[in-house]
Each structure stands twice: as C-alpha cells, then as structure tokens.
Amino acid sequence: MGTSGVDPGDLSDAELITRSVTGPDWFSAIFDRHAAHIHRYLVRRIGPGPAEDALGEAFLVAFRKRAGYDTTRPDARPWLYGIATNLVAQRRRDEVRELKLREALGPPPDQEGHAERVAEQVTAEAMGKLLDGALADLPDGDRDTLTLFAGEGLSYEEIAAALDIPVGTVRSRLNRARRKVREALERPDITTSKEIANHG
Length: 200
Description:
Elements: H1 13-22, H2 27-46, H3 48-64, H4 77-89, H5 92-105, H6 112-122, H7 128-136, H8 140-151, H9 156-163, H10 167-185, H11 193-199
Helix pairs in contact: 2-3, 2-4, 3-4, 4-9, 5-7, 7-10, 8-10, 9-10
C-alpha cells in the first residue's frame, strides 16, 4: 500500500508518476512493474553484463525526468524503452559486439523465445544466429525500430512514442529492415534451416 493507503497496483503508470513528483517513493512501483521488460530489452541489445548497469541508469534517468512525463499516456513502457534506446545509442559498439558474438556462438537458452518471435514476424527463415548477424548490419535507427517491434512487441504507435518519430517513419524503417534481413538470410552462402533439415 502507498503512504495514502492506495494500492499502487490500482493506479496507472501516469498516476504513479504524477504522485512520485511530490512523493518519490511512488516511483518504485514503476520500477517493479517494468524493470523485467526493460532489462530483457537491454540484454538483447548490449548483453547481460552491460545491461545490469544500463538498467539502473535507465530508471535513474526516468526518475529525474518524471516531472516532464506526458500524463496523457497511461502506460509508461514506451517512454522507458525510449530512454533505454538512448542509452543503447551510447553503447553502439557494445551492441554490435554482442550481436556478432551471438552470431558466432548462438543465442543463450533464454534468448530462444526472442529468436522465435522475430522469426515469426520478420521472416519464416530467420534463425537466431543468422538473424543476429543481419541485425548487426542494420543502420542504428532501423535496428532500434525492429527490435522494439519484433523483440518487445510494441505497436507502431508505441514505437513512435518511444523513439519520438512519426508513425510513418516507423513503417518505413520496418519495411526497410525486413527487406534487409530477408536479403541477408537468403544469401546463397548462408546455410538455411531448410538445408540443415535436409541433412538431418
């Protein structure tokens, strides 16, 4: 229960953030509600080690900016993804290194679901190792957009809010990213899952 006897679980993110401006303890409910999602996103982008530090930094930035939060948006997750994406932008080399490492070694077990979701939404041929290599080669903005859409399941409107770009830009980035990923996965020198199955 909050200090006023109100259960934080009964409040929207916007209401919690509004209360946290004068009662900072309320913001802990935002962390409890969304930290797991933001941490998962950061692990995908920059790896487990850097993600731990970036998670704390993301919520510290959010806490400092809470007074400027757009309270017409009841769900704070797109806002938090936007902050996390800005932190990833400061660690682009770490992200590409992580993607190249996963391309070489394959994704860890807890990333298998991620590969499956992206495979389903981007192309039926997308498998973890091949996809990571393709993602590493995308321009930064396209990779941000594709990861939020396919990895985190955000809508076009939520991605637009997270990245502070028009919905039309989201659409064009996704179309471009899908095309580039498909092209990468269809290169003749890459062993496809179908070929692997034929040799099984």
